[in-house]
## 1
Amino acid sequence: MITPISKLPARVLRTNTKNLEFPLKKDKLRLIRNMLDTVRAADGVGLAAPQIGKNLNMALIYLEEAGLPAFPIINPRITKFSKEMVDIEEGCLSMPGVFGMVRRPKKITMEAYNIDGEKFVITDDTFLARVIQHEVDHLQCILIIDKFDTITKGHELLKKYQ
Ligand SMILES: [Zn+2]
């Protein structure tokens, strides 16, 4: 089911998230399926639970176009950040039309849980690392509007989102 996406300045985007407990209940599994339908319909690369109005510590990574099957990251934690930083243009489904340059560590290591409650670790320095950082920021109430070095598109929309 496609769910409406919360847009700034929705409070849920600035509300602390709660860890999920395992085994996941049916409503959480349904939520993950809804997030998949929603991110696919919105043509996004990731979606965090607060973006569909739930203050839960979970996001979905959706890089199927890059050949990676979609997967949730549950209770994720980034445990290592590289010193090397990169500037990449980012947008956000909670702030459509606005894009800007965001500086982030190039390489990260993340620990998270899958839907079965099994821990997994990803170390990456590709676009995946960028998407993971963007989504984990959402789970900590941080949005790219807080991080922009420069706005590249949509200046005129900024007021609406503040
Ligand atoms: Zn976002």
## 2
Amino acid sequence: MSDYQTFTKSIKEKTGIDLNLYKEVQMKRRLTSLRDKKGFKDFSSYFNALASDQELLSEFLDKMTINVSEFFRNSARWKVLEKKILPELLKRQSHLKVWSAACSTGDEPYTIAMMLSEHIDLSKVSILATDIDDKILERAQKGIYTERALKEVPKSLKDKYFTYENSLYTIDARFKKAITFKKHNLLSDPYPSGFDLIVCRNVLIYFTEEAKTEIYHKFSRSLNNNGVFFVGSTEQIFSPESYNFRVLDTFFYQKND
Ligand SMILES: C[S@@+](CC[C@H](N)C(=O)[O-])C[C@H]1O[C@@H](n2cnc3c(N)ncnc32)[C@H](O)[C@@H]1O
């Protein structure tokens, strides 16, 4: 077994995270650079240090997860959600159950909550927001952002739903109430079900083809009939029909009846 393979095995035993389900070339490059920066010559000495140093372990988890996010990321797609997909969903039902999977710092579930609140009373909405990374979920729950994260937020929403202080924006507390943040590993935890909309963007690109196939099946089972799956702008599904999906629009899939 190579130094890297032994490392992935030990990481799985220690954290439950299976690095082999992430694309190896990218992951290995990222972790090698971190390991070198920390001054370890191989993965086995790096793991020994990680195993006894909580801070080093947390830095490693941070690096492997890539937390970049922003509100209304790829804003044209959010317009499609608002103008085309949402009206159809709301025609069929008065309550909505939504899952923002791999939600990072919360920009995505708050975007969903803000958008929905313009069309439906938030008491009729429940949003589950999950991520593998505990630390990022703590930040998400605080709902505090820099200007950069808000660059795509329309001015009207920014004025209405954020308070600005000391160069930081805090999201209105009503949105925090609509969202339940929870730790969840898409590669190993059981999937919750009964959703009308699942948003999972900019994480599937890091996974192997086999892992993605499995995840698409699971998301499909998690959706109600006619529920919608919204993916990232480089994450089109190759053969949606194999997961009981049909294409509604680019990057939007609907589960068949
Ligand atoms: C690039 S961010 C995407 C954030 C947001 N969805 C967006 O599009 O802006 C990727 C997120 O995926 C999370 N992640 C990585 N592996 C995961 C896994 N196995 N299960 C759940 N979340 C994971 C990371 O912690 C990170 O917060």
## 3
Amino acid sequence: MNRRAFINWVGVGWLASSLPVAIAACSPVTMQAESTTNKGGFKSVGTVAQLDKDSQLLNKNSPVGAVLVVRTSSGSKLSAVNPSCTHAGCPVGWQVKSQKFVCPCHGSEFGTDGKVLKGPASKPLKTYQAKIEGSSVLVNR
Ligand code: FES
């Protein structure tokens, strides 16, 4: 292999290996993922201001699906659940005073850990990890 052929071979190899990285770095999908994703799979579902306004943050179309995040009275601890009642699917609401999720359809009640406190529901609400970073509320499915 002469010098010119070697340089051409190295140049084509460099271009072939760099091009996918350059395209991915400029992709709008990558930029969107960075704006809603945090390390460890946490995704933004709303702002702290939204959470503080009503002591709860409901996002039916978040990146992790429908999620209800609440601040418990025990300080800054967050509780995040799928708000669909496990009895028949009605959306549960957060009762600040009693610190539990209550279903308006048939009266099931769930604790901050999603466990059933009162039937007719027999299965717990699906729970998620939640945290605050800066002004964002993040949930990990
Ligand atoms: S749908 Fe929630 S208790 Fe029946």
## 4
Amino acid sequence: MDEKDRTIKDFGEQWRKYSDNDGYYGSLELFSDILSPFLRPDEIRDCRVAEIGSGTGRIVNMLLEAGAKHVLAVEPSDAFEVLCRNIEQPEKVTCLKIMGEQLPAYGDLDYVFSIGVLHHIPDPAPVVEAVFKALRPGGNFLVWLYGKEGNGLYLAMVRPLRILTKHLPHFMLASLVEMIYWPLVFYIKLCHWLPLPLRKYMMSILERISPEKRRLIIYDQLNPSYAKYYAQSEARKLLLDGNFANVRIHHRHGYSWTVIGTKPNS
Ligand SMILES: C[S@@+](CC[C@H](N)C(=O)[O-])C[C@H]1O[C@@H](n2cnc3c(N)ncnc32)[C@H](O)[C@@H]1O
């Protein structure tokens, strides 16, 4: 099995252990933060949209709450069952158990979203190409990616750790997550007093997330076989190489990239 298939398998297992999207983690408020400064949730109202890499349906339900007319939810892993079960307005959703690169060339989508997914695909170019074909002219592709900039110290710690953790069985990884959880809680408290790395993310996002979902976030960092942390130029290039125009990028909370591009009219 190659790295791409291993990563999909890892997520299939992960999402069957952590299957709900409760609280701030699954809220429209968090979605608004992810889209900012390029889009507001109300701009999605009555639109035909897709999400690539839907996992447990967290973003799909946010899109429905924002008023999307129809959502295509793409998820290739065994989490597909969890996705179908979690969808809140099933009559407005089509779930597709396919890879992002297999998205049909509908040519009429207003928006495609891919939140926290492309950095887990070793060669994301075919996915970007498929999204381009699925959008209508003037339609937009918004992606959120892990960033390299702002994560220096974090990556110095997590990269060596991942060499081991991506191979651990669930019960061992879950025990390790428990050992990391309490120092993380302490670190978040310290961020109130000291200008520590990732302070902005800790205080504006992680502090608002429930203990259970914080554990999931630690697990999600350590579990997948493949994870790339994008430099700003690489994140922009991903959409520029896919022929997107008006590509704009935002350094979200100083640790990640939100990138948006438009399919040109001609
Ligand atoms: C970190 S999860 C993000 C889930 C969801 N977007 C969210 O934010 O809650 C990444 C998801 O991408 C999926 N994925 C991995 N490779 C993919 C591919 N080639 N095409 C589509 N989805 C893929 C995984 O199975 C996983 O569910």
